[in-house]
């Protein structure tokens, strides 16, 4: 697969995302369902702690990517939904550092929502990966 990152500006670098991922000749696309900070039984962990929920969500995504024979370097789109935008912005640098350490260069969006399906979840992320 050929991947070209499209960034007409540089301001996004501090926020940890890219404006475009152009893919050619991808042999495999992987669409992950929205993930919350849940354990193997679907129970929400770290209620009230945005940074810990972010870490758990990313660990859950990593586990799914691994089972699909991919990792965060394959992620081309990461959409983030949160019920607490203020807490998300306070934890944003933490999240960005975590994603950079995993080699993630994603497009996507950050949306504030009134509720998530998982009780106690502050954040949910959905991913598209390609190889």
Quick description:
With 131 residues, the protein is α+β, with helices and mostly antiparallel strands. It is built from two helices and six strands, in the order E-E-E-H-E-H-E-E. It has a single domain (2-6, 15-130), classed as 2-Layer Sandwich (60s Ribosomal Protein L30, Chain: A), CATH 3.30.1330.40.
How is this structure best described in words?
The chain has 131 residues and is α+β, with helices and mostly antiparallel strands. The protein has a single domain (2-6, 15-130), classed as 60s Ribosomal Protein L30, Chain: A (2-Layer Sandwich), CATH 3.30.1330.40. The chain has two helices and six strands; from the N terminus they run E-E-E-H-E-H-E-E. A four-stranded mixed beta sheet has the order 3-6-4-5, covered by helices on one side. Strands 1-2 form a two-stranded antiparallel sheet. Helix 2 links the parallel strand 4 and strand 5 (110-112). The longest helix has 18 residues, at 50-67. The chain is globular, with a radius of gyration of 14 Å. The model has no long low-confidence stretch (mean pLDDT 97).
Number of helices: 2
Per CATH, the superfamily is RutC-like
Q: How is the quaternary structure best described?
A: single chain
What is the molecular shape? globular
Which fold does the CATH topology refer to? 60s Ribosomal Protein L30, Chain: A
Specify Rg, calculated over alpha carbons: 14 Å
N-to-C terminal Cα separation, in Å? 6 Å
Could you describe the largest sheet, including whether it forms a barrel?
Answer: 4 strands, mixed
At CATH level 2, the architecture is 2-Layer Sandwich
The overall strand count is 6
Query: Into how many domains do the coordinates divide?
Result: 1
Low-confidence stretches: none
- Helix-residue proportion: 25-40%
Query: Strand sequence of the main sheet, in spatial order?
Result: 3-6-4-5
Topology order in helix (H) and strand (E) letters: EEEHEHEE
Strand content: 25-35%
Instruction: Assign the CATH class.
Output: Alpha Beta
Average pLDDT, to the nearest integer? Answer: 97
User: Strand pairing plus helix content: what structural class?
Assistant: alpha+beta
């Amino acid at each position: 697969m050929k991947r070209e990152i499209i960034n007409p500006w540089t301001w996004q670098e501090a926020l940890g995302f890219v404006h475009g991922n152009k893919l050619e000749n991808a042999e495999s696309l992987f669409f992950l369902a929205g993930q919350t900070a849940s354990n193997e039984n679907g129970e929400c962990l770290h209620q009230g702690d945005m940074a810990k929920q972010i870490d758990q969500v990313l660990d859950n995504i990593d586990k799914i990517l691994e089972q699909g024979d991919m990792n965060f370097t394959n992620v081309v789109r990461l959409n983030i939904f949160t019920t607490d935008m203020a807490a998300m912005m306070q934890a944003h640098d933490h999240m960005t550092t975590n994603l950079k350490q995993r080699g993630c260069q994603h497009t996507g969006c950050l949306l504030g929502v009134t509720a998530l399906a998982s009780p106690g979840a502050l954040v949910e992320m959905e991913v598209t990966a390609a190889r």
